[in-house]
Amino acid sequence: MRIVLDTNILVSAALKVDSVPSRAVHAVLQHGILLKFDATERQLFDVLACRDPTDDKFLELAINGRADVIVSGDADLLVLHPFRGIPIVLPPVFLRDIARSASPP
pTM for the full model? Predict the structure, then answer.
């Protein structure tokens, strides 16, 4: 079976590992042939990459380190919230959430 996946399916699969789009991508890779060409790959990389390529190292670190959260004031990172299921939050939001989790119920 020869299959075309729209970029939004690939992005959703990348952002949510156990989502329906993610399972669809895995099914295509196991049971079919994914049709693609340079323009579709370029669109995917444009959508997934940070607007500031110098910030990609923080995203890579968060993924490889299995981070629970990325704390940033950088608008180029904040627009990616959440990135592959990792929240990207401003420092005040992080502090508020930490205070809530440390407080007794």
Answer: 0.56
Residue ranges covered by each domain of the chain: 1-48, 51-105
pLDDT in tens, 5-39: 888 788 778 777 788 988 998 898 898 888 887 77
Q: Helix, strand, or coil here: 90?
A: coil
- Taking alpha carbons only, the member of 13, 33, 34 closest to residue 24 is 13
Omega prior to 82 cis, within 30 of 0? yes
Give, rounded to a whole angstrom, the gap between the first and last alpha carbons of the chain: 54
DSSP one-letter string for 59-72 = HHHHHHTT-S-EE-
DSSP alpha helix (H) spans, the chain: 7-15, 20-31, 38-48, 56-64, 75-78, 91-102
